[in-house]
Amino acid sequence: xxxxxxxxxSPRLTDLAxxxxxxxxxxxxxxxxxxxVASTGRVRPRTAATMASSVALYWAGMALNDYADATVDxxxxxxxxxxxxxxxxxxxxxxxxGLTAAGLGLAALAGGRAAxxxxxxxxxxxxxxxxxxxxxxxxPAAMAGARALNVLAGAEPGRRSSALPAALLVxxxxxxxxxxxxxxxxxxxxxxxxxxxxxxxxxxLAAGALPSLRRTGRGRPDGRAARIGAAAGALAYLxxxxxxxxxxxxxxxxxxxxxAVGAGILSLMPLQAALTASGGAPALAGLxxxxxxxxxxxARKVSPT
Length: 305
What we know:
Its main location: membrane. The protein is mainly α. It contains eleven helices and no strands.
């Protein structure tokens, strides 16, 4: 096995895809979509560029994660691209820097200073987590904050307060995934997946209840459509992610915890569908829900963790 240093040959595209956890990026646009519809009830022209910005920043964080963890991964996760010698460490850092620049550039293109006002602190949290906070008590909160900001990035400037409930729920979900991820290699005490499962159940209940807290009106679907969409998304979220956590709580081995983390990353999509439906776009929520099985199939080829 080669060490976690640069290598002479250029990495293959498949190795770079593994480095940035390519399929997991399907869980990112839904944050922006949920924020957009929560604030305006519809998608604006800038939403696509904001989604692209968020995906670039997500991929940057994944590459930076492997750069920062190269020494640890050489022992704990030797199959990853850097310790296995398929991607050089300097290449991973360059990839992270390039994708970060692209993400911030796309944010500026999407919304100028107002968009950068969210994208810059989001980027700061991602870099701080990967380089400093991951192993500290602040790690899960940092990741939760980054994903909450990703929701607010999609919201219309001046109306971001309308997207706060969705942002808080996405942040709460991310906190549970990050807390679980600390035990992917060694396994966890039963109390950890049990606690995150309780948090997931509370998140699902809150997401399903959101339509009753929103007013219907111009640009919003009728209350019945919102309630059905939110309930369906929340149930799918609880079934997929909650089920994996229940198995981990019953037998908290490293393999079961890792499966729960992978389920949590991709189960964000039905949660986003619930939030999008409650915000005013049941058709778009249906597209998010329909994309979830595709993301799960792709994850069998490229691990999201």
